Amino acid sequence: ALALIQLRAQGLVPLLLLMAVVWIADIAAYFTGRAYGRHKLAPAISPGKTWEGAFGAVIAVQCYGLVIKPLLFAEADMPVWSVWSVILLLLTAVSIVGDLFESMMKRQAGIKDSSQLLPGHGGVLDRVDSLTATLPLIGFALLNLLPGAQT
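The chain above was modelled as a monomer; its predicted structure follows.
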């Protein structure tokens, strides 16, 4: 929460562009996993998640990163591709881990859906689990690793 308050000074656009990393990772993992998924990522925690889906998320986020990099940074402040790529890879990994953590908590509690507010979507927590895991990292990245992000 404190990171989000501090991010207000940098503006909403960089925050939303980086939050979209999480959404793109989720969507890409889902569709790639459905199409090509054969190897379960964590079958005891979330049997639908696959290594192929995770790989699809990484590829999609790296492609998205190519698109948003010039939108986020002035030419002089643009980080080298390797740094940017590692940050995107970390965001993707933390997003997947956050999703798995929330699934593990639900399984341990014997709950299928975290609420009935969004029927068919696993509940509210399933919509924000990846974001709650990645927002602190997004805040840290914008404030410390990517200080040249444009507002």
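The chain has a mean pLDDT of 82.
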